[in-house]
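ok, trying the design again with the full structure, not the truncated one.
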């Protein structure tokens, strides 16, 4: 590695720090350079790897003659096609099986195992570069089996199953047994096990390790596959220098990761405090702070997501736009709404609903302006209905069915549909109309309560039975305001979560409970002003997200360019 390349690598630690996955990419680069012989200088005084291979072969024959190992089958020579990059002249390409005796451990079979109970480790104890030994188990192992299934200091242990290829060096004075899903690699002579570990780490970082795995999900790496892996072998002194340099650079990466985590946590904490103050404090104080530090606070999407929630919460608290004394108060609006509901009952356009319980002062989630009211969703709804349970199909010429997967972050996503025939009896009633709100009533705990407003054409789509449709009296109510209220933080925290029922691993929330959920009702003109303001601020959030994406993409491209130069 030239001094210029080393300097370039040092110089761009800051670039890696700025890019979203820059530190992971930097680790990959360090390992790649190491395995190409570009991380430290070669020393002409080092005996070349070809001499080391002779010593390894001699040691191998000595062990065979002493009866300690069986004579290994010769492995095929490394071909030109298998060589992925150039290495220094003093190095050699070998197969892993040429430099290490390796085997898997003892199979756990409680019905057949005999011997003494002994500690043994499994793949659940073996992680990249480390072991977790809090849950070490025992199995019966005979004395004559110990040589094959015991790891000692400086053995390289490699997962055969699970995340095949995951590796760590056993660096404890005590010995330990290991089970059959772990390979033990014991090097014949003068191979630094930590260099070999870093080699496997590099294969994992670059994805090359997948070439030696079989299986989907839970993969495996057979003994034959392990033996055939092509391995770049430097002289032993250079192995030690490479390991020391990798350790130095990885320590710097650790420091960068810790610093990045600390900064991210501080940024999130400062923003959370500002948002909390914004929601609780008198007008202006926290907002002024956010405006002064806007550039620092909104460089990560997590803070933008929290800003979106705060905007909705401020909107339903009456804090986004000024009240207008000329607006007809919500108490009068509610009388009009009730009159319309009664009118609809007479011509049998809707089912007669029981009067909803009024929202007592103790049940109010937070204070609202004087000309607002707290009401139940049932007070505002023409109808609240469950969806169709008819069997669906994939024929896109039929009627699309909205399902819970179509509700994403308060929006209905028009993809991933299933379909039903238009001729079923339910459909005239269960067709969607613009401004219908769909609510997810059953799923995992965190997904129950998702809702979104339908904005498509009338009578061209329906919804599944695990959704509930709220059809509002939209001549007197702005449905978008109610939809925004149902996506505000207070709604889930105070109206949904306390009433969720868990059954058989599923969370449930029924239509009766939904009808009793409390929402704030402003005068209709103010509803319209709030929706307009929310939409303006959500557009700003969209712009922030786009700016973050653009900055992230720019940082990633810069890092890629730097890595290519190195």
């Amino acid at each position: 590695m030239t001094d210029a390349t080393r300097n370039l690598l040092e110089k761009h630690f800051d670039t890696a720090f700025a890019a979203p996955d820059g530190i992971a990419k930097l680790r990959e680069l360090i390992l790649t350079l190491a395995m190409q012989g570009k991380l430290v200088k070669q020393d002409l005084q080092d005996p070349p790897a070809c001499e080391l291979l002779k010593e390894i072969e001699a040691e191998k024959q000595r062990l065979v003659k002493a009866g300690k190992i069986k004579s290994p089958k010769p492995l095929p020579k490394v071909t030109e096609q298998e060589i992925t990059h150039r290495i220094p002249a003093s190095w050699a390409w070998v197969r892993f099986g040429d430099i290490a005796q390796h085997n898997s451990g003892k199979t756990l079979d409680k019905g057949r195992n005999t011997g003494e109970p002994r500690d043994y480790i499994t793949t659940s104890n073996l992680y990249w570069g480390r072991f977790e030994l809090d849950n070490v188990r025992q199995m019966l192992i005979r004395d004559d089996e110990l040589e094959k299934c015991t790891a000692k200091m400086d053995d390289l242990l490699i997962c055969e199953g699970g995340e095949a290829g995951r590796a760590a060096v056993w660096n404890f004075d005590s010995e330990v047994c290991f089970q059959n899903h772990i390979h033990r690699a014991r090097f014949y002579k003068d191979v630094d096990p930590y260099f070999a570990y870093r080699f496997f780490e590099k294969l994992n970082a670059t994805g090359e390790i997948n070439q030696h795995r079989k299986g989907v999900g839970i993969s495996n790496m057979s003994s034959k596959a392990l033996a055939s892996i092509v391995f770049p072998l430097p002289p032993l002194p250079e192995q030690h220098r490479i390991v020391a340099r990798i350790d130095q650079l990885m320590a710097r990466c650790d420091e960068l990761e810790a610093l990045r985590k600390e900064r991210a946590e501080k940024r999130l904490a400062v923003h959370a405090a500002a948002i909390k103050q914004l929601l609780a404090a008198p007008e202006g104080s926290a907002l002024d702070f956010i405006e002064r530090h806007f550039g620092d606070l909104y460089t990560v999407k997590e803070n933008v997501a929290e800003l979106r929630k705060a905007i909705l919460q401020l909107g339903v608290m009456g804090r986004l736009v000024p009240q207008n004394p000329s607006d007809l108060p919500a108490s009068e609006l509610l009388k009009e709404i009730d009159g319309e509901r009664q009118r609809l009952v007479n011509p049998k356009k809707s089912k007669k609903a029981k009067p909803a319980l009024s929202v007592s002062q103790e049940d109010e989630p937070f204070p609202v302006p004087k000309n607002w009211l707290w009401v139940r969703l049932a007070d505002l709804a023409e109808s609240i209905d469950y969806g169709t349970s008819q069997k669906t199909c994939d024929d896109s010429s039929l009627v699309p069915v909205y399902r819970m997967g179509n509700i994403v972050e308060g929006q209905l996503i028009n993809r991933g549909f299933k379909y039903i025939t238009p001729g079923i009896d339910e459909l005239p009633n269960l067709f969607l109309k613009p401004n219908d709100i769909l609510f997810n009533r059953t799923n995992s705990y965190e997904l129950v309560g998702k809702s979104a407003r339908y904005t498509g054409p009338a009578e061209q789509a329906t919804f599944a039975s695990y959704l509930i449709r709220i059809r509002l009296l939209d001549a007197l109510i702005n449905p978008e305001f109610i939809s925004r209220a149902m996506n505000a933080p207070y709604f889930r925290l105070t109206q949904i979560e306390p009433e969720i029922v868990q059954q058989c691993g599923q969370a449930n929330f029924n239509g009766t409970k939904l009808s009793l959920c409390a929402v704030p009702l402003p005068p209709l003109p103010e509803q319209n002003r709030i929706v307009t303001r929310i939409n303006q601020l959500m557009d700003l959030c969209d712009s922030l997200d786009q700016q973050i994406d653009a900055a992230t993409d720019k940082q990633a491209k810069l890092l890629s360019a730097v890595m290519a130069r190195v």
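Keeping the full-length input from now on. Residues 236-280 form the longest helix (45 residues).
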